[in-house]
Amino acid sequence: MNKPQYNNQIRAEEIRLVGEDGQQLGIFNLPEALAMSKEKGLDLIMVTDKAVPPICKIGDYGKYLYSLKKKERKNIAGSKHGETKNIRLSFNISDNDMLTRILATEKFLNKGDKINVELRLKGREKQLSNIGLEKIKKFIQLLGEKVEIKIEKEIKKEPKGLSVTILKK
Fold first, then answer.
1. Disulfide engineering: 37 pairs with which of 44, 85, 129, 138, CB 3.0-4.6 Å?
2. Per-position b or e across 75-95, b if 16+ CB within 10 A of its CB
3. Whether this model's pTM surpasses 0.70
4. Which ranges in the chain are annotated with CATH 3.30.110.10?
């Protein structure tokens, strides 16, 4: 995070001044604005230098930095969702195990995660990939009864088996 300039670090000749309550005070030259902030016992903080003239605010520099860090932490914490979770099915999966995987998938979907369902095929199972395809279709159908889903990537045959990517609508 770039720390904003304050008090004597500001180099602009004229600034647009905002009071501590957020009210626009107008355009002032820098020495006038610094005198006003010193009079109130506060700092002159540059909010943005992209505007012409730059926008500065009268306020406590420490509190302003704290609020910026707090916003940054909130943005980072909010961006965690949307991971890709893997659910692996086996060729000889029982119905009860399938339901267990569906419950886990349902939890992940409700959290906002993407699900990659894969069914690994080994040895002779590779010749029976149509049975594996039916297992994945059954999984999707049972999951669709519990949660509204959207298939992002269709069922795809890969060298090691079958896979499909699912999202919540």
1. 44
2. eeeeeeeeeebebebbbebee
3. no
4. 84-168
